[in-house]
């Protein structure tokens, strides 16, 4: 007897048939993997170092577990996810038929991996290991791009060559390294801010559509007041106000601001879908049966309107990436020296023809990211649309 296909497997099968959506999916994966494993692709600290005295060390490990950057929160999250991903996938595959054992192993892996991130202390390391290796006569194993994102590695505005694949910026930092770490910034802002906006917009829309009456009237009038503000102008105002605060985690500020401004349109969408479902018999049956309101909202209503929310997520990520790049280009985004695609574009503003590499590579990355998520969203829209 053939096993019955699960809904998730059926959706994935339909998704794979859409070539445009599949191209967008692999494009997003092509951005996510270098961002996750950025320290393994671009890092000025050697993985292994043999000095002239024959001593073996790994300066890379301390940076991996305790990044000495201003944006420690995002860097730590990405480093933790990079180390957790492959063992988690292997554990899930080996224990795919034993769900309880798989859960215990994944929990043990998550807790065990968190220990070094909590115990290793950050230490400022400005050693030039390449020069040290040459002078001491030792040997070192470096990343493919042996430069950190904030390391001055060559003369400013150097064009692309064999040593610096994408050239250097106006300070002399390697553009390829800053592009890879800039992908972390763009994806962190895009994904986390969109998830937060989805949570706020979904809760507001569900409540307004379900309770209706005066509650719906009052909530949606407040939402319409916020909708009257130009979104980007509101972003600039909030960023200028919060930017004066002495808070080093500027990426978290950008995520918070985009979350507070990105949920409004989704609230209208979720409210409309909730009103449609609210009039169906199964909701009335749940209410008459005495099922708690929270269970009705999140156990019965939410799964039936999840399609439009999922589609909005993919388009929202693309919009948030563009918004962050625009803020960084105008000087209101993530603070220097944190790598950002919008920040690289800003450096080429004075002379875009001579600094063409500071325009071409960040612009290409933005085009790739936005196109990939838009292709995924369009594929999901066609897949979940009952008319197609």
Architecture overview:
The model has no long low-confidence stretch (mean pLDDT 85). The chain has a 3-stranded antiparallel sheet with strand order 2-1-3, with helices on one face. By secondary structure, the chain is mostly helical. Strand 1 (48-50) and strand 2 (56-57) form a beta hairpin. It has a domain at 176-384: MetI-like (MetI-like fold, Orthogonal Bundle), CATH 1.10.3720.10. The protein has helices spanning 7-17, 19-36, 38-41, 59-65, 72-94, 99-119, 129-136, 175-211, 213-228, 231-243, 250-262, 264-278, 281-288, 293-304, 306-330, 341-347, 356-384; strands at 48-50, 56-57, 139-141. It is globular, with a radius of gyration of 24 Å. The protein contains 17 helices and 3 strands. Helix 5 runs antiparallel to helix 6, helix 10 runs antiparallel to helix 11 and helix 16 packs antiparallel against helix 17.
